[in-house]
Amino acid sequence: MKTTFELGEVFITRSAVGALSCQAIFSALERHASGNWGDVCWDDWNRNGLAMSQGQRIISVYHDLNGRLFWVVTSANRRKTTLLLPEDYQPYHPQKTKTAKQTPNH
Question: Is the dihedral of CA 3, 8, 10, 11 positive or negative?
Answer without folding.
Answer: negative
